[in-house]
Amino acid sequence: MHRTGYSLLCPLKTLHHIYHGRRELEQVAHEHLCAGIQSIVISREVKKIAVQAGVPATKYSTHSIRRGSATALLSGAANSLSIKLLWCWMSSCFEDYPVPSMVASLHLSARMVSPPPPSTPRAS
């Protein structure tokens, strides 16, 4: 279901959360998925999640969602034109964002805190 390899990016889960958010904000009747939701509301929620995650809220905004979405789409092999149209990007700057690889980063944190393997003595 999720081509990026990250189960948190599942489109069905995303739609589920958007639907419940629309119900809470009484925006269900709008034709467009996120119509009527002001960016300040989204920004406030992003910052609240950042605080819960223990990271500086000042480093995250609505652009974090925009940038993260473009990165996830690139990881899932979406083409640049589709990303530009979907997120209204005027340039291709999103292609310069680093694209994480699930396989490459799978055990990265464990390797970062593990002691290095013992070195073998060199032959003289």
Number of domains: 2
Radius of gyration: 20 Å
Low-confidence stretches: none
Distance between the termini: 56 Å
Helix percent reads 40-55%
Order of helices and strands: HHHHHH
Major sheet attributes: none
Strand-residue proportion: under 5%
Q: Total strand count, please? A: 0
Structural class comes to: mainly alpha
Helix count, per DSSP? 6
Outline: elongated
Mean pLDDT: 76
How would you characterize this protein structure?
- The protein contains 6 helices and no strands.
- With 124 residues, the protein is mostly helical.
- It folds into 2 domains: 1-37, no CATH class; 39-97, no CATH class.
- It starts with 10 loop residues before the first helix and ends in an 11-residue tail after the last helix.
Keywords:
single chain, about 120 residues, 2 domains, 6 helices
Please render the helix and strand layout as text:
Layout: H1 11-24, H2 39-53, H3 62-75, H4 80-87, H5 102-105, H6 108-113
Write a concise synopsis of the structure shown.
49% of the residues lie in helices and 0% in strands. It is mainly alpha-helical.
